[in-house]
Every structure is written in C-alpha cells, then in structure tokens.
Amino acid sequence: MQVRGLLLLLALILVAATAEAGKNKKEKAKKDGSKCEDWRWGPCVPNSKDCGLGYREGTCKDESKKLKCKIPCNWKKKFGADCKYKFESWGGCSAQTGLKTRSGVLKKALYNAQCEEIVYVTKPCSSKIKSKSKGQ
C-alpha cells in the first residue's frame, strides 16, 4: 500500500512540475510586456544586397519593435517575400513571344502586406526538345 501512495505522490509532483513549465513558456512569449494589439509591420529589409538575413520594423501607437527576418535569395523579388501565392502549371510556349506564362493566386499575406490577388510570371521557352524515347 505504501508503494502505491509513493507512486501517486510522485505522479502528482510530475504533473505539477509539467504545468509550471508550460506556464513559464507562455510567460516568455509575452516577455516584452506590450499590451498593444494593432501592430503594423513594414517589409523585410535585408542587411546587405537584396536577399538574406534582415529585419522588419513594427509600430503600434507610440511603440516600435524590430523583428529578425529572412528573404530567400531565390525568391521572386517582384512579389515581395511577404506575399505567398499558389501557382498553376506553366502554359504552352507562345510562338510570338517565345515565353511561357502562368498565374498565381494569393494564398497568404504575411504581416498585413499589401499584395496583388493574382500575379502573372513568364519565363523563356526551353530551346531543348525533350525526347520520350527509352534506351534499349
């Protein structure tokens, strides 16, 4: 009977410690102490060149903050790193322009970014002709 009581006591201590650890994580998330809820965030500004690590500035009433951010170097700079699009498949090659076209529909705008609902991208047609023959 004493073993059961000891195990029950250990289980209660473990549950209490776990609850306290979860509480501390929530407090760390709100460590800045800001009560402002209407933050306006600017675009991600790279530290050097036009991609890589950088920061974005946010303002809310009289407060301001800087957050670290990153713009991938292979990103479509034309759309901005805060606008995420769902693209369809590439269309056929236009004989007149020599370009392929596809459109993307806005999927998500991060940090209240001003994004276009639909965007169009083009790329040159491939000069190679892909053969579908298999080796024997």
Tell me about this structure.
There is one protein chain. Helices cover 21% and strands 33% of the residues. Among the domains are: 36-72, Single Sheet (Heparin-binding Growth Factor, Midkine, Chain A); 74-127. It is an alpha+beta fold. Strands 1, 2, 3 and 4 form a four-stranded antiparallel β-sheet that branches. The radius of gyration is 26 Å and the shape is elongated. Strand 3 (52-60) and strand 4 form a beta hairpin. The protein has one helix at residues 2-29, and strands at residues 40-41, 45-46, 52-60, 63-71, 83-87, 99-109, 118-124.
Give the % helix. Answer: 10-25%
How many β-strands, per DSSP? 7
The average pLDDT is 78
* End-to-end Cα distance: 77 Å
Low-confidence stretches: 24-31
Hey, roughly how much beta strand do the residues contain? 25-35%
Please give the count of helices: 1
SS content category? alpha+beta
Report the sheet with the most strands, covering strand number, pairing sense and barrel closure: 4 strands, antiparallel
Helix/strand order: HEEEEEEE
Q: What Rg is obtained from the alpha carbons, in whole angstroms? A: 26 Å
Shape: elongated
Main location: secreted
Protein name: Midkine
InterPro entries: Midkine_heparin-bd_GF, PTN/MK_C_dom, PTN/MK_C_dom_sf, PTN/MK_diS_sf, PTN/MK_N_dom, PTN/MK_N_dom_sf, PTN_MK_heparin-bd_GF_CS
GO cellular component, one term: extracellular region
